[in-house]
Amino acid sequence: MHSESLPELLDQFVSYKKANGYQYQTGAYYLKKYAGYVMETAPETAVLNKTSVEGFLEKFKDAPGSLYNAAAIMREFSRYLAARGIRAYLIPSGRLRLPTPVQPYFFTEQEILAFFRECDRIMEDPHLKGRHLVLPAIFRLIYCCGLRCKEARTLTRENVHLDEGYLDILQSKGPKSRRIYISEELAGYLAAYDRRISRLFPDRVTFFPNKADQPYGSSWLQRNFLRFWHAAFPEKKGSGISIRTYDFRHHFVYANMNRWLREGKDVNAMLPYLMRYMGHSDVKNTLYYFHLVPDIYGGILDRSGHSEGLIPEVDDDGEG
Q: Can you give the pTM of this predicted structure?
């Protein structure tokens, strides 16, 4: 019989994951939610049981992605307890279906240019320190490099090496890290951004800081993405088409494949390079993007996004 309470077991599990090189922010978030649910509904619960787990997962029934993430983390916690000799409820295999992937949106070059024109029109707001500088820069970085949104949001200044032309992405998914190289054009743009934002945050840690020098949240990024998108295309508001900041990452893969096709390169030979750049652990994860595009080998070359013209001339003393 174990002597620890459920909150203590949860804390020990999170500490265990972090000690093994995982940041485990998402896992800790869902486990904290579960602990709160248990305290409200059955505070006497000492270990994972079927009633508390299924009741907790019911809260995510209308959010398939969150439901799957929560269930995966609960399974992981159950296996950890089992390895310690503590009997706990394990969600049966096949109990939950994978969420249906959202069909990615692939941009035309004209749409990309219009989106970034709106980004560059944002005005300074004294109540939102630095936001007018952060938004155009963070969206350009995600678009030009195909980063995950979290990778851009949580990027620290010490991991940005613009003189050498690379970024270090640390522990994005699991304990793995990677180094990505960027173009001279993008490095120059980000260097100008860095000088300007440093006047507002001289000793900042976060490369794209909020007013407290912390990373912005994912919902903030998506709200502002839609803000610029609908400013550029007001007729598309309420159209029912799903579009997200994350679609820039999808489009990065799509555009690179189109470029290889135009240049006559062997796509199969190039895929491992793209896999490593994007931080995928297996090439099949990179191929996933192409399976969502049935006409990838068809007449789509004219839809490739281009970075030319997206990195504006920047006057360090200007406010634009």
A: 0.69
